[in-house]
Amino acid sequence: MRNNRGAGWRTTSADRERIPMMQDRTWRTSSYSVGTEEGECVEVSLSHDALVRDSKNASGGVLAFSVPAWQSLLRSLGSR
The whole model's pTM is what? Predict the structure, then answer.
């Protein structure tokens, strides 16, 4: 993932509220991570929702999923 916050992006009040929330959460790194800077890995935080972020850019963008959507995604990936 890349940080898309360039000249065309602005910080919103929702972004400012989300930053402290993300810092208070427990993030888990994939067991498939190779643990190197070159490794492509994501971190997931599960609470009342599922947040996913790039482990190399923890302050960057976050994908948010509802619990049912997250479970559906995992089932879909597991069936491959």
Answer: 0.62
